[in-house]
Amino acid sequence: MGIPVLVLGESGSGKTTAIRNMDPKKVAIFMVEKQRLPFRTQFPMVVPKAGYAHIQKALQEHKLKQYVIDDSQYLLVNEFFDKAAEKGYDKFTSIALNFRNLIHWVNVVCPDDVIVYFLHHTQTDDYGRLKAKTIGKMLDEKLTVEGCFDIVLKTERNQDGWWFRTHSAGNDPVKTPMEMFEDDLIPNDLAIVDAKIREYYGMEAEKK
Q1: In what order do the strands lie in the sheet with 27-31?
Q2: Which of 30, 67, 130, 152 could be joined to 116 by an S-S link, Cβ 3.0–4.6 Å?
């Protein structure tokens, strides 16, 4: 089974920038909405306007061990707008089911050494708690998106720079396996995160 990793953060908080040090020859980046990366490093494997079928086809082929979906909440948003004229609640069921099935695909079908990073926007619930941004109530009330991930990181910025939070601050769903990360804040760098995950689970490390 593969490893889905949820990376939460507001727009402009450093989610996409964290890709910059990954090996362009070893990672596929699915650009769901945007078509350009916010740095100069060239990633020739960028797939613009990716949808569920495109992503699942690539994952099924198992050609790589690293994948990034940027930004994954637009899979929900784009389907919602595509079906905006449809009446009734069936469209919300479809939206929730498709997103859940993609995460399930990574968890169950992908090989053990495949890591898929879901870069995802955030929202605050009625109780002031940070959560993954979704469409409708089905994903929140029946599924809880963050519960499908063993690793949930969050972007954070302070006077010293840009970071990933690895342990919950109390009002967010951030979590990582015990002893995977010692520090609450680590550099905003998915190459570092990927190497640490592979070390923790005893995978063969990806050479830079």
Answers
A1: 46-48, 27-31, 66-70, 115-120, 3-8, 151-158, 161-165, 185-187
A2: 67
Identify whether the C-beta of residue 133 lies closer than 8 Å to the C-beta of residue 10.
no
pLDDT at 85: 86
Q: Which amino acid is at 194?
A: D
- CB 148 within 8 Å of CB 103: yes
Q: How far apart are CA 104 and CA 90, in angstroms?
A: 21
> What pLDDT does residue 208 have?
42
Q: C-alpha angle 153/54/164, rounded to 5°?
A: 10
- Burial status of residue 196 (CB atoms within 10 A of its CB: 0-12, 13-18, 19 or more): middle
- DSSP annotation of 175 reads B
Asked if residue 49 has pLDDT above 90, the reply is no
Strand 115-120 with 161-165, pairing: unpaired
pTM (predicted TM-score): 0.93
Report the distance separating Cα 140 and Cα 172, nearest Å. 14
Please, what is the average pLDDT of the chain?
A: 91
Q: Determine the distance from the C-alpha atom of residue 208 to the mean position of all C-alpha atoms in its chain, rounded to a whole number.
A: 22
| Structural domains of the chain in order of their starting residue, each with its CATH number | 3-200 (3.40.50.300)
